[in-house]
Amino acid sequence: QVQLVESGGGTVQAGGSLRLSCAASGRTVSMFAMGWFRQVPGKEREFVAGISYNGRTTSYADSVKGRFSISRVSAKNTAYLQMNSLKPEDTALYYCAHSRTPWTAGGSSRDDYGTWGQGTPVTVSS
Hints:
Largest sheet: 7 strands, mixed
Strand content: over 45%
Helix content: under 10%
Radius of gyration: 13 Å
Shape: globular
């Protein structure tokens, strides 16, 4: 059974940067797409970014395009989310997940993902 653990969250001023990490343990996730989602209280969890199992394809929510970058290092069983030019509206609990199906590019729906981490909080002050 794989476990995903997010880290790197914190509090930053608007315009600042953070780098989130998602470390997998238990077994390799190199055959799965990885995704980052975020959620604020009272709202549904929303897609932020995704990366295919081989790292060749990435996708982003319109709200973060040009500011966030997703990557992965299979040898470390870890995915990353580099967040630049942060805005107060980026404040949320950030989750990583791996796809239900191996050998895919991943998707933007929560239903595409089957294993989730506990989340790491990001607060952006104005």
